[in-house]
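User: I've been going back and forth on whether these two constructs are worth ordering. Before I decide, could you fold them both?

Assistant: Sure. I'll take them in the order you sent them. The first construct and its structure tokens:
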Amino acid sequence: MSRSDQIVGLNARAGSYLGTNGATDIARHYRNDELISEHTILACELSDRYAITDMLGEEQIKWNKYLLKNGRWVYEYAQESPWASGPVHFLALKNEEGEVIKETLWTKEEMDLYI
């Protein structure tokens, strides 16, 4: 097994939080100038705010920021990064003031299922 950064991402509670509070965009897929599909997606973009350096010290790993319906942003950050053949990044959310959104936190028991 090779050693590398592993990103578990957000938990289901964070997904529910964003599903309830997140703003949406329309993603359209075109082929040869013809609309193939259209989907509603969460309004998000990459952010440097809580970026980390990968385990090899070579690249920056950026996390998403999500636009909320109220016009404010929430940011992914690495809540915990325990080691298992490399860091395993469990993400949660913080608001614009840097306060943790507690309902998006992983529990130790949940993280233990992945390591």
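The second construct, handled the same way:
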Amino acid sequence: MRHFKYQPLVVSLLLCFSLNLSWGQTKINRNTELRFMGNITGDFHNDPMGMLQDFTLGIEWWSLLGEPIEMYNIKWHSTGSYRVNLKGKTVIISRDMIAKYPDLLKRFDNLRPSKMDLVVYGQCEGNTSAVKRGGAFPYSAYYGKGSAYKKNGQSYDPYTLSAHIVHTVHDRHMLFSKSGKWGKSLVPESPKVWNEFLNWKQRTSNFIAPNTEIDYLVLNKTVTKYNSISKSQQEDLDKKLEYLFNNTTTMSLNVQVLKLEWPETEMRSIAQLYDEYETGKTPPSPLEEITEAKKKIASQTKYENNDFWGEIANVKQLETEIFQAGKYKGVRYKGTNTVIIPAKYYAISEVYDYFVVSSTPETTNKMKEEFHNHSVLLDKNGNIVISEFFDYASVDEGNEIITIMRKKNISRKRMVVPNKKTWTPQYERKPGSVWYKYDFDYYNVKYSRQLIYISTRP
């Protein structure tokens, strides 16, 4: 009988373990617009450089005209310090240490991840389907079977959707702002097929351990296997995946870091310059003198005499507004009929002094076989700022930096190749100038990613 003595304790420990795993999950219900929208608090990540304290991923998933759509925002917080190797030694640089050097403090506060891949995982619950007793239900591996019941003399088996999902979110889908600020995407993206969207796992998956593995229990296929099956088999698989998504009503989700990289060259440069300031090898930046000068200027009495020098011309700046014409959008001067951008676009977003304009339906249809999320950047007068179409745009919370991505060439053969990125810093910060840019390959498609400095504020 001693065998049963510890059974209550074992059961209690298992329950606590299960509850701890579910704690921190974000429950997201499909809203009235049939979208899953919510902010997921990230799982703890042991950052080797010690810079990442926590992060939150904002997701928006929905289906439009039979295609999956996804959009992401992200916010992260710094611990206020980081570890970096300098001259063969590991040194710690903290914000408090460098606070007396304004130039270093500004550079520290502008640090952000250079790469951050995430995996979203969790459980989906959804609709119940009634199947006549003896009939086959093609989605039974992703549904829980309930107790049979009779209706009008017929026996039925109820099946309720209950399965795991796993989805990798690569950093190219996100814009990273500085610590504590949201990096917000402006243009949603659409995977080429449903097979490249959420990965669905059978109910036989391990429901206790974090379920982040894309293994043999996943309904989706790798790109190579997907391309090797027939067209009808591809369509059948995509219909199954679409069916599971459309029948989901609630998701309970977590998110983990898969890969995290920081701009180590910049972090090492800050540490090196701090050491030189402290040892006297390099005089401190003139930013300190500039800061003091600004304080003196701010303290000066404002000139308010009623004469030529004290009066400021009252120049009226015309405001703009986005207007709707049928199912299309355009831009005009507010309160007038003067159109700046004709109403022939599906989506227009205002970004500080610019507009991100999605491609016309004609362009979309023309490019659909290749890439069909094209946008262009215009200024408030309707002039093109970026002369070529680009495929993705997002902006940080301060509306100072806009990130655009272009596909440099298009190849229908999609195969996984290693990412190759070369950063080219260009520190000249004037409106419309490239701040950073790098090129990389993904699925045999060459991308060019550019960070455009757009702020016109002093």
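Notes on the second construct follow. The longest strand covers residues 115-132. Residues 320-453 form one domain.
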